[in-house]
Amino acid sequence: MSIEFGKAGRINRLGSLLKNLSREEVLEAVSRFEKLGRKVDSFDESSRYDLIINGKAYPPKAVFGLAASAHLNFDVKSQHFVGGEASASFRILQRLGFEIKPKTYRPGRKEGLILHGNYSRRDAWKILGEGDTFRAGSGTWGLQGIIRDRPLPGDAVLFVTLGSYEGNQYEDAVTEDGALIWKSQAEQTQASPAVRQLVAHDETRNLVCLFLRTEESAPYTYFGPLSFREWDPASEKPVHIVWNILNWPLPEGLASKIGLALTPALSPTYQPIENDIPSSLTETAPPDRSKSKSGKGNGNAYGNTDWAEREARNRQLGLAGERLVIQKEIDHLVAEGREDLANSVEHTATVNSAAGYDIRSFDSQTGQEKYIEVKTTTGDLNTDFFISSNEISKAEEYGESYWIYRIYDFAAGRPARFYRVSGNVTKNFDLVPTAFRATRKF
Protein backbone atom coordinates (compact mmCIF):
# COMPACT_ATOMS: atom_id res chain seq x y z
CA MET A 1 0.00 0.00 0.00
CA SER A 2 1.52 3.29 -1.11
CA ILE A 3 1.53 6.11 1.44
CA GLU A 4 2.01 9.66 0.22
CA PHE A 5 2.51 12.82 2.26
CA GLY A 6 1.41 16.41 1.76
CA LYS A 7 3.53 19.53 2.21
CA ALA A 8 2.71 19.69 5.93
CA GLY A 9 3.98 16.13 6.42
CA ARG A 10 0.49 14.65 6.76
CA ILE A 11 -0.68 11.43 5.15
CA ASN A 12 -2.72 12.11 2.02
CA ARG A 13 -6.13 10.40 1.61
CA LEU A 14 -6.07 9.01 5.13
CA GLY A 15 -9.78 8.21 5.04
CA SER A 16 -9.40 6.14 1.87
CA LEU A 17 -6.35 4.30 3.16
CA LEU A 18 -8.23 3.31 6.33
CA LYS A 19 -11.67 2.67 4.84
CA ASN A 20 -11.43 -0.99 5.87
CA LEU A 21 -10.17 -0.34 9.41
CA SER A 22 -12.28 -2.44 11.76
CA ARG A 23 -13.61 -1.94 15.24
CA GLU A 24 -11.61 -4.98 16.38
CA GLU A 25 -8.38 -3.35 15.18
CA VAL A 26 -9.13 -0.27 17.29
CA LEU A 27 -9.84 -2.43 20.35
CA GLU A 28 -6.54 -4.24 19.76
CA ALA A 29 -4.86 -0.83 19.64
CA VAL A 30 -6.41 -0.02 23.02
CA SER A 31 -4.91 -3.22 24.45
CA ARG A 32 -1.49 -2.30 23.05
CA PHE A 33 -1.87 1.20 24.50
CA GLU A 34 -2.44 -0.29 27.96
CA LYS A 35 0.54 -2.68 27.58
CA LEU A 36 2.74 0.30 26.62
CA GLY A 37 1.91 1.95 29.95
CA ARG A 38 -0.54 4.37 28.26
CA LYS A 39 2.34 6.18 26.56
CA VAL A 40 3.06 6.17 22.82
CA ASP A 41 6.08 7.81 21.19
CA SER A 42 5.28 11.17 19.51
CA PHE A 43 1.77 11.28 21.02
CA ASP A 44 0.97 13.52 23.99
CA GLU A 45 -1.97 13.13 26.35
CA SER A 46 -5.13 14.57 24.88
CA SER A 47 -6.12 17.88 26.46
CA ARG A 48 -9.42 18.38 24.59
CA TYR A 49 -11.08 15.02 23.85
CA ASP A 50 -11.50 11.55 25.34
CA LEU A 51 -12.20 8.30 23.51
CA ILE A 52 -14.60 6.44 25.82
CA ILE A 53 -14.41 2.63 25.79
CA ASN A 54 -16.13 0.56 28.50
CA GLY A 55 -16.42 3.68 30.63
CA LYS A 56 -12.68 4.40 30.46
CA ALA A 57 -11.06 7.43 28.79
CA TYR A 58 -8.26 7.16 26.20
CA PRO A 59 -6.47 9.76 24.04
CA PRO A 60 -8.15 9.46 20.61
CA LYS A 61 -5.10 10.36 18.50
CA ALA A 62 -2.76 7.92 20.24
CA VAL A 63 -5.20 5.00 19.95
CA PHE A 64 -6.01 5.85 16.34
CA GLY A 65 -2.30 6.12 15.55
CA LEU A 66 -1.65 2.63 16.93
CA ALA A 67 -4.57 1.18 14.98
CA ALA A 68 -3.51 2.94 11.78
CA SER A 69 0.10 1.78 12.21
CA ALA A 70 -0.96 -1.87 12.44
CA HIS A 71 -3.42 -1.59 9.55
CA LEU A 72 -0.98 0.18 7.20
CA ASN A 73 2.13 -1.67 8.40
CA PHE A 74 3.73 1.74 8.80
CA ASP A 75 4.74 3.71 11.91
CA VAL A 76 2.05 6.43 11.98
CA LYS A 77 3.15 9.31 14.21
CA SER A 78 1.23 12.23 15.69
CA GLN A 79 2.50 14.66 13.06
CA HIS A 80 1.14 12.46 10.25
CA PHE A 81 -2.53 13.35 10.91
CA VAL A 82 -4.75 15.71 12.90
CA GLY A 83 -7.45 15.18 15.50
CA GLY A 84 -10.53 17.23 16.29
CA GLU A 85 -14.22 17.21 15.47
CA ALA A 86 -13.89 17.63 11.69
CA SER A 87 -10.83 15.37 11.25
CA ALA A 88 -10.73 12.12 9.29
CA SER A 89 -9.37 10.28 12.34
CA PHE A 90 -12.35 11.24 14.50
CA ARG A 91 -14.84 10.49 11.71
CA ILE A 92 -13.39 7.00 11.29
CA LEU A 93 -13.56 6.25 15.02
CA GLN A 94 -17.13 7.52 15.23
CA ARG A 95 -18.12 5.51 12.11
CA LEU A 96 -16.92 2.41 13.94
CA GLY A 97 -19.27 3.22 16.81
CA PHE A 98 -16.81 4.74 19.28
CA GLU A 99 -17.76 7.68 21.50
CA ILE A 100 -15.53 10.76 21.56
CA LYS A 101 -16.35 13.35 24.22
CA PRO A 102 -14.93 16.82 24.81
CA LYS A 103 -12.93 16.97 28.03
CA THR A 104 -14.11 19.13 30.90
CA TYR A 105 -10.46 19.66 31.80
CA ARG A 106 -8.63 22.82 30.81
CA PRO A 107 -4.86 23.42 30.93
CA GLY A 108 -3.49 25.13 34.03
CA ARG A 109 -0.27 25.70 35.89
CA LYS A 110 1.20 22.23 35.37
CA GLU A 111 0.79 22.67 31.61
CA GLY A 112 2.52 26.04 31.80
CA LEU A 113 -0.47 28.40 31.79
CA ILE A 114 0.36 30.95 34.50
CA LEU A 115 -1.43 34.19 35.28
CA HIS A 116 0.60 37.22 34.13
CA GLY A 117 3.19 34.97 32.49
CA ASN A 118 4.69 35.95 29.12
CA TYR A 119 3.86 33.96 25.97
CA SER A 120 4.42 34.02 22.25
CA ARG A 121 1.61 32.86 20.00
CA ARG A 122 3.48 29.60 19.56
CA ASP A 123 3.72 29.18 23.35
CA ALA A 124 -0.04 29.68 23.74
CA TRP A 125 -0.75 27.25 20.89
CA LYS A 126 1.36 24.53 22.52
CA ILE A 127 -0.75 24.79 25.69
CA LEU A 128 -4.24 25.52 24.34
CA GLY A 129 -4.28 24.40 20.70
CA GLU A 130 -4.03 20.63 20.70
CA GLY A 131 -4.87 19.19 17.29
CA ASP A 132 -4.28 22.54 15.53
CA THR A 133 -1.43 23.50 13.23
CA PHE A 134 0.78 26.49 13.97
CA ARG A 135 2.10 28.67 11.15
CA ALA A 136 3.96 31.81 12.15
CA GLY A 137 2.29 34.94 10.78
CA SER A 138 -0.66 33.12 9.23
CA GLY A 139 -3.55 30.81 10.03
CA THR A 140 -5.60 30.55 13.18
CA TRP A 141 -2.90 30.64 15.86
CA GLY A 142 -0.28 32.58 13.95
CA LEU A 143 -2.39 35.58 12.99
CA GLN A 144 -6.02 35.75 14.11
CA GLY A 145 -7.20 37.77 17.11
CA ILE A 146 -10.10 35.45 18.00
CA ILE A 147 -9.65 31.70 18.24
CA ARG A 148 -12.93 29.89 18.87
CA ASP A 149 -13.54 26.64 20.74
CA ARG A 150 -10.13 26.49 22.37
CA PRO A 151 -9.11 24.97 24.71
CA LEU A 152 -12.60 23.36 24.85
CA PRO A 153 -15.74 23.74 22.72
CA GLY A 154 -17.49 27.00 23.65
CA ASP A 155 -14.24 28.60 24.88
CA ALA A 156 -12.25 31.28 23.08
CA VAL A 157 -8.77 32.79 23.09
CA LEU A 158 -8.25 36.51 22.44
CA PHE A 159 -4.92 37.96 21.31
CA VAL A 160 -4.97 41.74 21.77
CA THR A 161 -2.27 44.26 20.89
CA LEU A 162 -2.87 47.76 22.26
CA GLY A 163 -1.24 50.93 21.00
CA SER A 164 -0.58 52.48 17.61
CA TYR A 165 1.35 50.59 14.98
CA GLU A 166 1.19 50.01 11.25
CA GLY A 167 -1.92 48.14 10.22
CA ASN A 168 -3.69 48.56 13.59
CA GLN A 169 -7.13 50.06 12.99
CA TYR A 170 -8.55 49.28 16.44
CA GLU A 171 -8.86 51.40 19.54
CA ASP A 172 -8.77 48.75 22.24
CA ALA A 173 -8.06 49.88 25.81
CA VAL A 174 -7.93 48.73 29.43
CA THR A 175 -9.60 50.92 32.05
CA GLU A 176 -8.69 51.64 35.68
CA ASP A 177 -11.60 49.51 36.87
CA GLY A 178 -10.49 46.43 34.92
CA ALA A 179 -12.59 46.66 31.76
CA LEU A 180 -11.23 45.72 28.36
CA ILE A 181 -12.75 47.87 25.63
CA TRP A 182 -12.36 45.68 22.57
CA LYS A 183 -13.31 45.59 18.90
CA SER A 184 -13.66 42.43 16.84
CA GLN A 185 -11.99 41.87 13.51
CA ALA A 186 -13.04 44.39 10.87
CA GLU A 187 -15.02 41.97 8.72
CA GLN A 188 -17.17 40.65 11.57
CA THR A 189 -20.80 41.56 12.11
CA GLN A 190 -23.43 40.81 14.76
CA ALA A 191 -24.32 37.69 12.76
CA SER A 192 -20.77 36.31 12.74
CA PRO A 193 -20.59 32.99 14.66
CA ALA A 194 -17.59 34.18 16.68
CA VAL A 195 -19.42 37.35 17.76
CA ARG A 196 -22.62 35.46 18.64
CA GLN A 197 -20.59 33.08 20.78
CA LEU A 198 -18.78 35.91 22.58
CA VAL A 199 -21.84 38.00 23.46
CA ALA A 200 -23.54 34.88 24.87
CA HIS A 201 -20.49 34.12 27.03
CA ASP A 202 -21.03 32.87 30.58
CA GLU A 203 -17.73 32.76 32.50
CA THR A 204 -19.05 30.08 34.87
CA ARG A 205 -19.47 27.68 31.94
CA ASN A 206 -16.78 28.63 29.42
CA LEU A 207 -13.51 30.54 29.16
CA VAL A 208 -12.46 33.57 27.19
CA CYS A 209 -8.69 33.71 27.73
CA LEU A 210 -6.97 37.08 27.25
CA PHE A 211 -3.40 37.40 25.96
CA LEU A 212 -2.48 41.09 25.79
CA ARG A 213 0.56 43.15 24.79
CA THR A 214 1.23 46.84 24.22
CA GLU A 215 3.78 46.59 21.41
CA GLU A 216 3.73 44.50 18.24
CA SER A 217 7.21 43.12 18.94
CA ALA A 218 6.59 42.29 22.61
CA PRO A 219 5.46 38.94 24.06
CA TYR A 220 1.87 38.62 25.21
CA THR A 221 0.99 38.66 28.91
CA TYR A 222 -1.69 36.22 30.03
CA PHE A 223 -4.37 38.23 31.85
CA GLY A 224 -6.54 35.22 32.64
CA PRO A 225 -10.26 34.74 31.97
CA LEU A 226 -12.74 37.46 31.03
CA SER A 227 -16.44 37.92 31.68
CA PHE A 228 -18.82 39.59 29.23
CA ARG A 229 -19.92 43.03 30.40
CA GLU A 230 -21.79 44.69 27.54
CA TRP A 231 -21.73 45.33 23.83
CA ASP A 232 -22.94 47.85 21.30
CA PRO A 233 -25.64 46.03 19.30
CA ALA A 234 -25.54 48.78 16.67
CA SER A 235 -21.85 48.26 15.91
CA GLU A 236 -20.78 46.42 12.77
CA LYS A 237 -17.46 45.68 11.11
CA PRO A 238 -16.07 45.71 13.79
CA VAL A 239 -18.41 44.86 16.67
CA HIS A 240 -17.70 46.69 19.96
CA ILE A 241 -17.60 44.59 23.16
CA VAL A 242 -16.62 45.46 26.73
CA TRP A 243 -15.17 42.71 28.94
CA ASN A 244 -14.38 42.52 32.64
CA ILE A 245 -10.88 41.28 33.49
CA LEU A 246 -11.63 38.91 36.36
CA ASN A 247 -8.16 39.09 37.94
CA TRP A 248 -8.27 42.75 38.91
CA PRO A 249 -6.56 44.89 40.15
CA LEU A 250 -3.22 44.00 38.59
CA PRO A 251 -0.18 43.24 40.75
CA GLU A 252 1.77 46.37 41.64
CA GLY A 253 4.19 47.37 38.91
CA LEU A 254 2.84 45.05 36.19
CA ALA A 255 1.16 47.80 34.13
CA SER A 256 4.33 49.90 33.96
CA LYS A 257 6.46 46.82 33.29
CA ILE A 258 4.53 45.94 30.13
CA GLY A 259 3.83 49.58 29.16
CA LEU A 260 0.11 49.44 29.81
CA ALA A 261 -1.45 52.89 30.14
CA LEU A 262 -4.87 52.61 31.80
CA THR A 263 -7.73 54.79 30.60
CA PRO A 264 -10.28 56.32 33.03
CA ALA A 265 -12.64 53.94 34.83
CA LEU A 266 -15.98 53.31 33.16
CA SER A 267 -17.63 53.64 36.58
CA PRO A 268 -17.12 57.13 38.05
CA THR A 269 -17.50 55.78 41.60
CA TYR A 270 -14.94 53.00 41.25
CA GLN A 271 -12.48 52.62 44.12
CA PRO A 272 -9.87 49.84 44.46
CA ILE A 273 -10.00 47.88 47.73
CA GLU A 274 -6.26 47.24 48.21
CA ASN A 275 -6.35 49.01 51.58
CA ASP A 276 -9.51 47.27 52.76
CA ILE A 277 -8.07 43.76 53.16
CA PRO A 278 -8.63 42.11 56.57
CA SER A 279 -5.57 41.42 58.69
CA SER A 280 -6.26 37.69 59.08
CA LEU A 281 -8.80 34.91 58.65
CA THR A 282 -10.41 33.06 61.58
CA GLU A 283 -12.57 29.96 61.30
CA THR A 284 -15.95 29.76 63.07
CA ALA A 285 -18.79 27.27 63.15
CA PRO A 286 -21.36 27.37 60.33
CA PRO A 287 -24.67 29.11 61.03
CA ASP A 288 -27.16 27.17 63.14
CA ARG A 289 -29.83 26.29 60.63
CA SER A 290 -32.48 26.08 63.32
CA LYS A 291 -31.84 29.71 64.30
CA SER A 292 -31.29 31.24 60.87
CA LYS A 293 -33.98 33.05 58.94
CA SER A 294 -34.46 30.26 56.44
CA GLY A 295 -35.89 31.33 53.11
CA LYS A 296 -36.01 35.03 53.96
CA GLY A 297 -32.53 35.91 52.75
CA ASN A 298 -30.50 38.76 54.05
CA GLY A 299 -30.41 41.06 51.07
CA ASN A 300 -30.89 44.80 50.92
CA ALA A 301 -32.95 47.01 48.69
CA TYR A 302 -30.78 48.98 46.28
CA GLY A 303 -31.85 52.37 45.09
CA ASN A 304 -29.70 54.25 42.61
CA THR A 305 -27.04 51.56 42.57
CA ASP A 306 -23.99 51.85 40.35
CA TRP A 307 -24.20 48.26 39.18
CA ALA A 308 -20.90 48.38 37.25
CA GLU A 309 -19.08 49.63 40.34
CA ARG A 310 -20.80 47.06 42.54
CA GLU A 311 -19.84 44.25 40.16
CA ALA A 312 -16.22 45.45 40.03
CA ARG A 313 -16.09 45.63 43.83
CA ASN A 314 -17.55 42.13 44.14
CA ARG A 315 -14.86 40.84 41.78
CA GLN A 316 -12.19 42.46 43.94
CA LEU A 317 -13.74 41.10 47.14
CA GLY A 318 -13.88 37.63 45.65
CA LEU A 319 -10.26 37.68 44.53
CA ALA A 320 -9.06 39.05 47.87
CA GLY A 321 -11.03 36.39 49.75
CA GLU A 322 -9.58 33.64 47.58
CA ARG A 323 -6.05 34.85 48.31
CA LEU A 324 -6.73 34.78 52.05
CA VAL A 325 -7.96 31.19 51.80
CA ILE A 326 -4.96 30.14 49.72
CA GLN A 327 -2.60 31.48 52.38
CA LYS A 328 -4.68 29.79 55.09
CA GLU A 329 -4.43 26.45 53.27
CA ILE A 330 -0.69 26.79 52.70
CA ASP A 331 -0.04 27.74 56.33
CA HIS A 332 -2.09 24.77 57.55
CA LEU A 333 -0.27 22.27 55.31
CA VAL A 334 3.13 23.62 56.34
CA ALA A 335 2.18 23.42 60.02
CA GLU A 336 1.19 19.77 59.45
CA GLY A 337 4.57 19.03 57.90
CA ARG A 338 3.23 18.75 54.34
CA GLU A 339 5.35 21.33 52.52
CA ASP A 340 5.16 19.07 49.46
CA LEU A 341 1.40 19.58 49.31
CA ALA A 342 1.63 23.26 50.26
CA ASN A 343 3.77 23.88 47.18
CA SER A 344 1.05 22.35 44.99
CA VAL A 345 -1.90 24.45 46.21
CA GLU A 346 -3.34 26.05 43.10
CA HIS A 347 -5.41 29.19 42.58
CA THR A 348 -7.48 27.61 39.82
CA ALA A 349 -9.87 30.53 39.25
CA THR A 350 -7.07 32.80 38.04
CA VAL A 351 -6.76 30.76 34.84
CA ASN A 352 -10.08 28.89 34.71
CA SER A 353 -13.25 30.69 35.77
CA ALA A 354 -15.34 27.74 34.54
CA ALA A 355 -13.71 25.10 36.76
CA GLY A 356 -16.60 25.21 39.24
CA TYR A 357 -14.23 25.91 42.14
CA ASP A 358 -11.62 28.54 42.99
CA ILE A 359 -8.79 26.67 44.72
CA ARG A 360 -7.33 23.18 44.56
CA SER A 361 -5.82 22.20 47.90
CA PHE A 362 -5.18 18.98 49.82
CA ASP A 363 -6.16 17.11 52.96
CA SER A 364 -3.08 17.18 55.19
CA GLN A 365 -3.67 13.64 56.48
CA THR A 366 -4.64 11.71 53.35
CA GLY A 367 -3.18 13.92 50.61
CA GLN A 368 -6.56 13.78 48.84
CA GLU A 369 -7.40 16.77 46.68
CA LYS A 370 -9.85 19.38 47.99
CA TYR A 371 -11.84 21.61 45.65
CA ILE A 372 -12.66 24.90 47.37
CA GLU A 373 -15.22 27.47 46.26
CA VAL A 374 -14.80 30.77 48.14
CA LYS A 375 -17.74 33.11 48.76
CA THR A 376 -16.85 36.48 50.31
CA THR A 377 -19.05 39.18 51.81
CA THR A 378 -18.77 42.27 53.99
CA GLY A 379 -22.02 41.12 55.61
CA ASP A 380 -22.57 38.90 58.60
CA LEU A 381 -22.68 35.15 59.19
CA ASN A 382 -26.18 34.69 57.76
CA THR A 383 -25.74 36.70 54.58
CA ASP A 384 -26.93 34.76 51.53
CA PHE A 385 -24.64 34.14 48.58
CA PHE A 386 -25.03 33.25 44.93
CA ILE A 387 -23.80 29.99 43.44
CA SER A 388 -23.73 28.92 39.80
CA SER A 389 -25.26 25.77 38.35
CA ASN A 390 -21.75 24.66 37.37
CA GLU A 391 -20.55 24.99 40.98
CA ILE A 392 -23.55 22.97 42.16
CA SER A 393 -22.76 20.33 39.54
CA LYS A 394 -19.11 20.13 40.62
CA ALA A 395 -20.17 19.75 44.26
CA GLU A 396 -22.25 16.74 43.25
CA GLU A 397 -19.35 15.32 41.22
CA TYR A 398 -16.65 15.74 43.88
CA GLY A 399 -18.79 14.93 46.91
CA GLU A 400 -17.02 15.32 50.26
CA SER A 401 -13.92 16.62 48.46
CA TYR A 402 -15.85 19.79 47.50
CA TRP A 403 -15.85 22.63 50.03
CA ILE A 404 -17.65 25.94 50.37
CA TYR A 405 -15.54 28.47 52.33
CA ARG A 406 -17.87 31.31 53.30
CA ILE A 407 -15.91 34.43 54.34
CA TYR A 408 -17.90 37.11 56.18
CA ASP A 409 -17.23 40.34 58.11
CA PHE A 410 -14.69 41.20 55.43
CA ALA A 411 -13.31 44.62 56.33
CA ALA A 412 -9.99 46.38 56.89
CA GLY A 413 -8.30 46.46 60.29
CA ARG A 414 -9.94 43.41 61.81
CA PRO A 415 -9.88 39.64 61.25
CA ALA A 416 -12.33 38.33 58.71
CA ARG A 417 -14.16 35.17 59.67
CA PHE A 418 -15.21 32.13 57.71
CA TYR A 419 -16.97 28.82 58.02
CA ARG A 420 -16.64 25.85 55.73
CA VAL A 421 -18.96 23.05 54.67
CA SER A 422 -18.11 20.04 52.50
CA GLY A 423 -20.23 17.89 50.24
CA ASN A 424 -23.27 18.28 48.05
CA VAL A 425 -24.45 21.90 48.06
CA THR A 426 -28.10 20.91 47.65
CA LYS A 427 -27.94 18.99 50.94
CA ASN A 428 -26.18 21.72 52.92
CA PHE A 429 -27.96 24.86 51.72
CA ASP A 430 -31.46 25.96 50.77
CA LEU A 431 -31.26 26.96 47.11
CA VAL A 432 -33.71 29.61 45.93
CA PRO A 433 -33.96 30.09 42.12
CA THR A 434 -33.50 33.76 41.24
CA ALA A 435 -32.84 33.53 37.50
CA PHE A 436 -33.05 31.05 34.67
CA ARG A 437 -30.98 30.61 31.53
CA ALA A 438 -33.40 30.49 28.58
CA THR A 439 -32.56 28.91 25.23
CA ARG A 440 -34.95 29.14 22.30
CA LYS A 441 -36.86 25.90 21.61
CA PHE A 442 -36.63 24.48 18.11
UniProtKB/TrEMBL annotation:
Signal peptide: none annotated. It holds the Pfam family ScoMcrA_N. Residues 20-101 form the ScoMcrA-like N-terminal head domain. Coiled coil: none annotated. Residues 114-231 form the DUF3427 domain. Residues 273-283 have a biased composition (Polar residues). InterPro entries: DUF3427, NOV_C, ScoMcrA_N. Residues 273-308 are annotated as: Disordered. Residues 321-414 form the Protein NO VEIN C-terminal domain. This is DUF3427 domain-containing protein.
